[in-house]
Write a structure and sequence with these properties.
The structure holds 2 protein chains of 2 kinds.
Chain A lengths: L8 H24 L2 H18 L8 H32 L8 H17 L5 H11 L5 H8 L3 H21 L2
Helix pairs in contact in A: 1-2, 1-3, 2-3, 3-4, 5-6, 5-7, 6-7
Chain B lengths: L6 H18 L5 H13 L1 H18 L3 H29 L6 H8 L3 E6 L6 E4 L5 E4 L4 E6 L4 E13 L11 E4 L3 E15 L2 E15 L7 E4 L2 E5 L8 E2 L11 E8 H9 L5 E4 L7 E7 L3 H11 L2 E7 L2 E6 L1
Helix pairs in contact in B: 1-3, 2-3
Classes of the chains: A mainly alpha, B alpha+beta.
Keywords (chain A): DNA-binding, Sigma factor, Transcription, Transcription regulation
Family (chain A): Belongs to the sigma-70 factor family. ECF subfamily.
Protein name (chain A): RNA polymerase sigma factor
Chain lengths: 172, 323
Amino acid sequence: MSANVAVSPVRAFEALYSSHHRWLKNWLQFKLGSASDADDLAQDTFMRVLTGNTAQEIREPKSFLCTVARRVMVDFFRRNALERAYLDMLALMPEEQMPSPEQRQCLLETLQQIDTMLDGLGEKVRQAFLLSQLEGLTYPVIAERLNVSVSSVKKYMAKATEHCLLFSIEHG
Amino acid sequence: MNTSLTDNQRLSLKIAAQWFATLCSGEVTPQQNQKWQQWLAQDEDHRWAWQRVESLQGQLHNMPGKFSYQTLNHARQQSDVTRRRVLKSLVVLLGLGGTWEAWQSSAGQGLLADARTSTGEIKTLRLPDNSQLSLNTASAADIRFTDTLRLIRLHQGEISIITARDNQPVPRPFLVETQQGMLRALGTEFIVRQQDGATTLKVLKHAVEITLRDRPAGGLQISEGHAVRFTGSAFGDVTAVTGGAGSWTHGVLSVSDWRLADVIAELDRYRHGHLSCDPSVADLRISGTFPLKDTDSVLEILSRTLPVKIQTATRYWVKVVPV
């Protein structure tokens, strides 16, 4: 009896990278219109494939890579939007109140983490959580703002919290 | 994913999240509190899950709350705009759009507009979100609406604002910036006046939050029916708004038992040149509603109802004196 020798995950990844890296970069460049963004995002895409440890199960490498790359692009756009909004908000801040460059970078990173963490949630769930935890509003006030019942607010809070707990465990 | 979690851990996280939602409601009975303690004591996984809750909470509470909340919301709107932009261009391609240019101009860098009134002029504008902006005599303001905020920059004079509910899915904050600070409308009707070295805010409906230019940490919320004057670093006393405070938006000055000197000072704002009042008649009391468009006729009414006459040196030098 001859047994198939399982391909090691690292070997599978290397094979995928060398056969498709250039192709993926071109595809991203076509989508994004920028060579350097395409470079970065191609790297991110392969990093995700590597950490997801799925390279050895791929049957359709191109469509698989596109799927992962699309998710990477969505995150990239979201990061950009957050950074722009952050700069907007900083611009409104009085000079004297401006945090130091290190603080600014640190806060931006934390905001990005939270933004990513809350991404999969519905808008009302997300709002309820942020209004409670960041704005410090009470449930009745949140309920009125979102036009829902107080008991819904509590449900949203539990849902968002559970989601965040799971997310923070998955993503270290 | 999540494969490293046991069923018990997963369940513990779920219940910990529910407890967190209960405890954050601010209405926890002693019995609930006791139950929560019991739940914690029951199981190692429960305590592990609760630690995760605490570290999440710690992370959130270390951030500047309001700032972070607004940033996250703005970012979300911007991504929505990107999404809408894609949809919109599709509509245009299909020939269904017709307002592409109008849409583009407001969605780009932000609609930048100067609103101005000359002396004696009162103007009311409808803003892109349906809010209403009135400019009193000799006023100037910039209107800056972006995807993430609604900002009025008051340079001089006085404005009255009636905010509308924002038509965006997540309402953009409505802000008014003066030389002394930033005002954030909390769904409201209010009046802001820029004076030399100070701003006066009068809140007619709901509330407005003030952040001082030089002392941003100590904000103040002014509620309906209250007024405050502030400099860049300090608030004056909060006083009651007098009736008729917003009457100028309707083109009239409505006063009840005012000193004549105060009425004259108010009318002076609407006139070129200099209008003053002799100290001997300054404390005469007066009530009534007067048209601001024609202050000459108001002076004439005054001269007929009070023991005063109008002394006119030139058209630009007018004094109210005793008969």
